[in-house]
Amino acid sequence: MAYNPERMKFNRTPKPVELQVNMPCTICNLVHNEECLEHDGSVEDIHITVVGVPWARRNYIKSQCISFDDQQNTHFDSQQYTNECLKIMIKEAPWGETTDTFLIQVGDELGAALETLLPKIGEEQNKETGETFSDTKKE
User: Fold this and answer.
1) Where are the alpha helices (DSSP H) in the chain?
2) pLDDT per residue over 40-64, tens digit each?
3) Number of separate domains in the chain
4) Which of 63, 91, 92, 115, CA to CA, is 20 to 30 A from 19?
5) Among 67, 84, 69, CA closest to 119
6) What is the rounded CA–CA span in Å between residue 11 and residue 89?
7) pLDDT tens string 63-110
């Protein structure tokens, strides 16, 4: 097969996603509570549109999230990684634009659903061998 530069580019076609968010009970204010006799917790479907994060942009975000201390130990800011990726990925949502202000206010249930959208750190899979980056580093 001949080299085709268009096939090598990242596909940024938006795709619809349905997030299933566990809603807390209006009586006990818990998501799962078997002791609440009138428990009315439910699952709410939230329809959003997402795009992927291109390889170069994801690497840039990762590099911005790594810091070093005085002993040259590395620290990764997963909150910054999460926020930056979600702001790029979510194109349409019922809440409008995904901003830092919005993300600070997100509850546990929606936050857990949003985390499922994130590209994993260091888990890029080699398409030929099926190994992940972390598997390769262990050898």
Assistant:
1) 5-8, 55-65, 78-89, 100-105, 108-115, 133-138
2) 667 789 999 999 888 899 999 999 9
3) 1
4) 63
5) 84
6) 12
7) 999 999 899 899 999 999 999 999 999 999 999 999 999 999 998 889
Is residue 4 in a domain?
A: no
Ordered DSSP codes for 22-49: EEPPTTT--SS-TT-TT---EEEEEEEE
Domain that residue 42 falls in: 10-108
CA distances from 20 to 7, 13, 23, 38, 50 (A): 33, 22, 9, 22, 15
Q: Is 62 helix (H, G, I), strand (E, B) or coil?
A: helix
In a domain, residue 25? The reply is yes
Number of other CB atoms surrounding residue 70 within 10 Å: 5
Q: Cβ contacts of residue 31 below 8 Å, gap of 6+?
A: 22, 23, 24, 25, 41, 109
Which among 19, 15, 32 has a CA at the least distance from the CA of 94?
Answer: 19
Query: Among residues 57, 52, 48, 61, which one has the least CA distance to residue 113?
Result: 48
